[in-house]
Amino acid sequence: MALSSGADRGSHSMDKSITLPPDEIFRNLENAKRFAIDIGGSLTKLAYYSTVQHKVAKVRSFDHSAKETEGDPLYEISVQEEITARLHFIKFENAYIETCLDFIKDHLVNTETKVIKATGGGAHKFKDLIEKKLKLKVDKEDEMTCLIKGCNFVLKNIPHEAFVYAKHADSEFRFQNTHPDIFPYLLINIGSGVSIVKVEAEDKFERIGGSSIGGGTFWGLGALLTKTKRFDELLQLASKGQHTNVDMLVKDIYGGAYGSLGLTGDLIASSFGKSATTDKEFSKEDMAKSLLHMISNDIGQLACLYAKLHNLTRVYFGGFFIRGHPVTMHTITYSINFFTKGEVQALFLRHEGYLGAIGAFLKGAEEDNPNQYSWGENYAGSSGLMSVSPELNPVQRARSGTFDMLEMDRLERQLVNLPLLQDPTSYIPDTVDLTEDVLAREYWLYCFEEALDGVVKRAIASQKDQPKAVERAEKFRQKYRHKLQTLRHQPFAYGSLTVRSLLDTREHCLNEFNFPDPYSKIKQKENDMALKYYLKVVKSVEELSWEQRQFTLVKGLLAGNVFDWGAKAVSDVLESDPEFGFEQAKLQLQERPWLVDAYNQWIERLKGPPHKCALFFVDNSGIDIILGVFPFIRELLIRGTEVVLASNSGPALNDVTNSELQILTERIAAMDPVIHTALKEDRLALVQNGSSSPCLDLSRLDKVLATVVRERGTDLVIIEGMGRAIHTNYYAMLSCESLKLAVIKNSWLAERLGGKIFSVVFKYEVPSNIREIKS
Amino acid sequence: MKLKCSSKPAFPWFGMDIGGSLVKLVYFEPKDITAEEEQEEVENLKSIRRYLTSNTAYGKTGVRDVHLELRNLTICGRTGNLHFIRFPTAAMHRFIQMGRDKHFSSLHTTLCATGGGAYKFENDFRTMADLELLKLDELDCLIQGLLYIDSVGFNGHPECYYFENPSDTQNCIKRPCCLDNLFPMLLVNIGSGVSILAVYAKDDYKRVTGSSLGGGTFLGLCCLLTGCETFEEALEMASKGDSTNVDKLVKDIYGGDYQRFGLQGSAVASSFGHMMSKEKRESISKEDLARATLVTITNNIGSIARMCAVNEKIERVVFVGNFLRINTVSTKLLAYAMDFWSKGQLRALFLEHEGYFGAVGAFLELLKSSDDA
Predict the structure, then answer these.
(1) The domain spanning residue B166 has which CATH number?
(2) Residue A467: what pLDDT?
(3) Active-site entry in B29, B138, B352, B354
(4) Are residues B190 and B166 in the same domain?
(5) What is the pLDDT of residues A323-364, one digit of tens each?
(6) B270 and A224: CB-CB below 8 Å?
(7) Structural domains of chain A, with CATH
(8) Is A305 exposed, middle or buried (0-12, 13-18, 19+ CB in 10 A)?
(9) Contact flag A209-B307 (C-beta cutoff 8 Å)
(10) Quick one: B203 and B273 in the same domain?
(11) B324 and B214 in a common domain
């Protein structure tokens, strides 16, 4: 049964004051509405919907009817206020309920709100208090329904939500890919009792079984046996005990293993089997450990029996018994492995504690249709997964006075898989998992910390005339540095740590302090400059022979990609030597043969029939897009291939955004009849990718993009740049031909790949089924 | 069930099952001894026979379950009584010493033993008493012993019984029954731990799973929680207690039934759930704790057994093992659990000789082995 209620945790002497300023916990209360609360045996989870007003950089084309004068910028950049939706979830100890309710009441402006959805065993106990304090009507929702709704929501919207726990592995948490279809699954909720729920669809679930031996049994029996009152303390005791002093093992009966049945000697034959005597004293630790094993094994066994009966392999565990406790996650994992011989894995959830609150919130927000949108975890506003082991971080484990937060942003676009992924279930965007690769982790964390000064400087420079820019930039620095420090100790805090997540976290933190686009002016300047050379580059290419032209175009694409403020080695050069030109970049490039060199195969392919449609994931603005990408796609268009340019929906570093690309394309079309005609005939299309990241997750792309890709019969995907083709997608398998190209602008990474800085990766891949048809 | 015995093994005829907590011993007392035989019978043998049959208790802890004795049994052409004796495994060394003192090794009999102790104590038997054990697999013995006893019956009555109206505490009555065909059956053996077997035929079975929450857990926890010392004492306490003072019921949380999931208010939501509260911990009795322990363990076994039965598609669930000895609280609870949760699909069956089938199986092997010889 999923009854998290349980008896009240004795209110031990604890400082009731809140350690964080409450306005940093209950953020955006001014516009908050649709409150929901989940009160468990010891923790309260509050949820609300709010709107966030934040600055966004907008670009607008000047009216070109007026005569252009030399030196006028290409387009206008303005910073505007934009309102976006955000979900706030806050977790705190029940001891703070009153303080928190008072704070909320004082800051609640929105008067439309009349009810608060409530769930959890403690909901009825605090009903009067909530109604009195907040003047809101408490509307109770079924606990299990909320739990399932919340579970579906996090599984759908948070990549790396689920993980496997491996106590002795290098990284204790092994995060799972987001499966495109989350159903069906089994949820084992271990509250005071155990509920086993089979979930088949968003609103289709059934409690198929349960057990009365659960967290309440561990707590209640444990308290009787050890005279220890608190659940956390019982777990602590258990982690120090030796169960073999209390349990009767197979070897205690057999003297060794029971060979014919394959039962090892260390297997527990009878829990507490040795304690049936009065002549011996047993230590608290040993009894607690034995109890923990008994209950975990029992639950694991039942879970396996139900999983087998219903033929389910995805089994998630939750409830207060689990809730991030490494001790119980370990014993449950062990038990599941034992009983299923590895066929079923025990899965845990990063935001397990929030499921009830999320579900209750969703119940209350049904008219807003939150499930129709895609949501993304905001790394800046979320606390991340707590410390691993009680030994490492006793303070955090005790959770006294700590508030845990989860914030989710409503994404403007609905996100779906790229239809061209060979196997969406096994697709992993990131090339290196820094949670597992210790050396790489250390390097990248160092690298991002080193680059922080530069980012702060750039942020200030981008808003010279804006109020409090220096102060905000300083706050950004503190926040991001703190995130980096947290990740150093807890690399698993937000799922697998990757270069992508480090970059995204930085973008989230910049946005948090209203630096929506620190590179806007640089991008503007570079775009401007590059446009002036466009025709010259195109002309010089046209004069070449076919073979020479193809090579020059590819080299141009690569040289353009050298211009990247995201890479430290390059931003150093760019900052010190603004004259660093396109031609010079070409000189910097590695001579063929490149580090990865499939150029010959690519040329052979080009000698064949043209592609139907190429999807190009573009990278940087300025020289990269204008002098590299455009001449290249121009050639494709001339060959008769349709082109779809996919660019970022929002700004990230100096990457070209969709709105910038619209303007640039217009300007190029005005100069170049090839582009002009292609646009007019809709053979060149611009789409946004739905992301604001310098990297690329092909499993979370704008739905419109997916439609366009399908409708146009896309048969070639080009991915450009380190962020999109190296840090992510290097190993991505597509169902059509693909080009992945980048210049390695980081000497550490280049060395790792076996090359030097400015090494070239030119990867041309043809899936085997297509290759067979061709030959 | 017929046993093929062309040549009779030498007396004494024993079968032994050395478990984690208890040693079970069956002894065949021949009643058809001729005068000639009597004369030839060595003194040792006579003294063993007299010792075992004239006492009902041996030492401080050995007990003969007189009520289980099978009389006038004819095996391998001999007629006699089968006696059922048990003592704690902790007394094993004293037993071996007795074997040495009574010069058991001089009798040239094979000592057939099963259970984990057959392996664990093999060397002690050899070095202390110069006795060689014939070690036998415990699950083989369990099934052979069970089938044999079921076939010979219990002194003219059926060995097997069930409960009529298991879901109605007022009208729940024990009823003996004869089964024409036992197969397939799910055999749940509750000793210190639990083993669950799916048995399809005499020689066709598999171990489905097991659980460490068994009789040993009940007694172990009871000793820790109440300070009691024996199984009998623990059961006595449990019979007087009320588990609802200790367990949290569905109605304690929802005020009634949890209708969304069709759970009755009287169902246990959390075993020992009330014990999370200090006040409740101070208000309960030892009897309540013993009862709650018994109910928790029993319900859990019922739950696992039921799931196995469904997974294996078997409708007959036979519960055996010494945990069920003098334990009507558990037998009735298991009968109820099988019936209620399966909506009448499953039937719980019990056997009078609960924990002795392994020993009987070992005893049968003795007769068979001499046949081979």
Answers:
(1) 3.30.420.40
(2) 82
(3) B138
(4) yes
(5) 888 899 999 999 999 999 989 999 999 999 899 999 999 998
(6) no
(7) 22-62+71-158+356-410 (3.30.420), 162-246+282-349 (3.30.420.40), 428-513 (1.20.1700.10), 519-770 (3.40.50.10880)
(8) buried
(9) yes
(10) no
(11) yes
Mean pLDDT for B259-285 is: 92
Q: Does B263 contact A at CB distance below 8 Å?
A: yes
Query: Which of A219, A276, A298 is facing B223, going by the closest CB pair?
Result: A276
Residue B318 phi, psi (nearest 5)? -105, 120
Structure tokens at A87: 């979900």
The model's pLDDT over B220-266, given as tens digits with 9 standing for 90+, comes to: 999 999 999 999 999 999 999 999 999 999 988 877 888 777 888 99
User: Could you tell me the pTM of the whole model?
Assistant: 0.89
Chain B from 230 to 249: CB within 8 A of any A CB: 246-248
Averaging pLDDT over each range in A173-177, A639-643, B96-100, B174-178, which range is the top one?
A639-643
Range of the domain at B184: 160-242+286-351
Q: Which long-range contacts (CB under 8 A, 24 or more apart) does A581-585 make?
A: A582/A533, A582/A537, A582/A556, A582/A623, A582/A627, A585/A559, A585/A560, A585/A623
pLDDT, one tens digit per residue, over B336-354 is 999 988 999 999 999 999 9
With beta carbons less than 8 A apart as the criterion, state whether A343 and A311 touch: no
Tokens 């905000």 found at:
A472
Query: Helices A520-542 & A630-639, crossing angle to 10 degrees?
Result: 50
Which residues make Cβ contacts (< 8 Å) with residue A563, sequence separation at least 6?
A: A526, A570, A574, A585, A620, A622, A623, A624, A654
What number is the ipTM of this complex? 0.95
Per-residue pLDDT tens over the stretch B291-330: 999 999 999 999 999 999 999 999 999 999 999 999 999 9
Instruction: Report the pLDDT averaged over residues A667-671.
Output: 95
Pairing state between β A185-190 and A194-201: antiparallel
In a domain, B126, yes or no: yes
Cα distance between residue A252 and residue A264, in whole Å: 11
Is residue B324 one of the residues assigned to a domain? yes
Structure tokens at A419: 């239809």
Q: Is the domain of B230 the same as that of B259? A: no
- On the question of pLDDT at B164 being above 80, the answer is yes
Cβ pair A294:B227 closer than 8 A: no
Instruction: Classify residue B154: in a domain, yes or no.
Output: no
Examine residue B155 and state whether it is found in any structural domain, yes or no: no
Q: Are residues B118 and B18 in the same domain?
A: yes
